[in-house]
Amino acid sequence: MKRKEQAVTQPQINGRVSNTAxxxxxxxxxxxxxxxLEKGCPLQAITIEESILTDxxxxxxNAKKEKKTPCSTLNRALKxxxxxxxxxxxxFDEKMSALRPSLYAWWDERNELLHGIxxxxxxxxxxxxxxxxxxxxxxxxxxxxxxxxKVVRWTQKQVRLARQANLLRE
Length: 170
Description:
The chain has helices at residues 3-6, 20-38, 42-61, 74-87, 94-97, 100-116, 130-164; strands at 12-13, 16-17. By secondary structure, it is mostly helical. Strands 1-2 form a two-stranded antiparallel sheet.
């Protein structure tokens, strides 16, 4: 197949691929994260960050598949990434792969926080003491924001490179 036959058809504005709705959604999401952090609501920020990370990873994981199977959770996206690495079909470069350990660590902390606010074994205190919870949640939310920004920037760069290589129809 020729490159143009493999290219993905996208909506166009002024000869350029347009994804205005997605751009607006991301602007809203990042705005909501910042507002949540300003108002002391780190769990809200973490939840939106997970949505961004899942969306961007899922999009990349499906970029060259004929049958798209979006990942509905970050866990599924991370597992699919691991499967692609094992099969040698991963589209992620070294820069993005260097983020994998941080993504896994953040995801583990996200799970601890979202499920651990009051969780405790029978007859014991909470898994995360109340006095530590907000500090940990705030830290995780800020780390998630940093990861989300890095992953979004990386995917934006990949789209630019694909355009330059004429892999996306303009």
